[in-house]
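Support request, please re-run this one:
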Amino acid sequence: MKTVKIGIIQTSCTENIELNVKNTLEYILKSIEKGAQIICLPEMYRTLYFCQTQDYEAFKTAETIPGPSTNIFSEIAKKHEVVIIAPLFEKRADGLYHNTIAVIDADGSIIDIYRKMHIPHDPGFEEKFYFAPGDLGFKAIKTKYATIGTLICWDQWYPEAARITTMKGAQILFYPTAIGWDSKEPDNVKPAQLDAWKTIQRSHSIANGCFVCAVNRIGTEQDLHFWGNSFVSNTLGEVIFSTDHTTQSANVVEINLDEIDDTRTHWPFFRDRRTDFYQDLSKRWLD
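Re-run finished. Output below.
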């Protein structure tokens, strides 16, 4: 039986970057004490979610890769032999920025990066002002403990992203996230929004016979109340672990990777795909 222990870090953020980093490190160590082998942080763990508005000052918080965060996480990963999934505001070059994940393996090396492919631009989520779209494609990254796929927040709504990442070999799809309710929205739509968020990601587990781990932040920042509810779904889409929407936490969930083969054998979606008739999916719309 091939098991892996996933560490889920659900935190809130302040305006103080040093405090946010210190807080995150404390929860990483807590998850390590509980036996975590692959640890995932929320989207842009280091700062407030500044994308609610367009503010040039926010660019000053971006960092290079390697850089301050990866240097710290590499040391921890090597010392404790853990994999860390670190979502960062990346400064790639002067005037060029990405919403990026650095994957640090258990030997402390940065084995790969993923740049967010789908960039939203809506009221309260003005990310196109800050981030260039990812140009590295979808990836399956072989770590010491499992082959993982790393996608970011808005990516989670796209079945194509999950499918391609899984087809490349990902056993677990990680979705670091910063999503919440707008304070101006009526209360009666909020449960439906949260349910839709969970449902679409559970569907990736079902359609691809893989595990999904969604890691969200909590707290209220300007007009957004982040809803937490970080969770793990198994290869049948069942939620096998979930947090609440108010508590900072470091939780560890053990999964059995052997379930992937068993599920795909009984639900052979990959066997029955009609790849000879899917060409239209490469078009924006069918007029």
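Helices lie at 17-33, 68-80, 159-167, 190-208, 258-266. The two ends are 49 Å apart (CA to CA).
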